[in-house]
């Protein structure tokens, strides 16, 4: 299954996120994922593993496991490179060993002090607070993103972690509309208004952290995972599926793209098996009632400032 973006290209509705994947495991995980059926991989300069992903992709192409045209590869512009969009994109392409990207996203709607293309550590001031560059506008960043499309380096461009206000502004100044807004959304953080706004204006919503971060975000941010919710466990029993499969199916039935991350082969296979059942409207309504407005991924832990405040 795929969603047709406003750019005219098809984006597989389920993908694999590579955030926090160990470098040594990436090649085997991506090769196994391709064998399972994944054709969509979500990367970012900030994940600091583009080179390892690139080696895995090159191996898959060399062995003719898959053709480049059959894959959808996303990566993202880091905060410190807003004033160096072209160089940052070329750096990612070189590491990924690709001639073009299917989708390039502005990772966060914030420009920070430039630390050198390809370096993605958070730029903190002496006070421990993110060193934000107030001379670079999101509009200028977006027009530089549009140039990447003109140059043929990128097929579609989009935004990530933008709220309704910033998305509306982007639509106002965009010559090339954002094809995607990638945001955290899951049963405990549904963000229905933002999802509706984006979809009303032809912007596909991709759900990062579609399972609520599970153990990873509990460890990093002390957040609560929806995978432990007794209501969702009851639905899993009803459909004879795992809780993760119920949550991913819910995301798909919202017409959002889901990009769960897993470093376990059995979970990779499990997360992909979500096309052989459908949640009833009644059960969709049950999940809708579970919203806690609970963000599980909170970069303020590292930045000394809550950008969502």
From TrEMBL:
Active site: 47
An example Gene Ontology molecular-function term: oxidoreductase activity, acting on the CH-OH group of donors, NAD or NADP as acceptor
SUPFAM superfamilies named among the record's database cross-references: NAD(P)-linked oxidoreductase
Span of domain NADP-dependent oxidoreductase: 15-291
Keyword DNA-binding: no
Highest taxon of source: Eukaryota
Site (Lowers pKa of active site Tyr): 76
Record flagged with keyword Oxidoreductase: yes
Binding positions (substrate): 107
Keywords: NADP, Oxidoreductase
Pfam families recorded: Aldo_ket_red
Entry similarity comment: Belongs to the aldo/keto reductase family.
Protein name: NADP-dependent oxidoreductase domain-containing protein
Naturally occurring in which organism (per UniProt): Ilex paraguariensis (yerba mate)
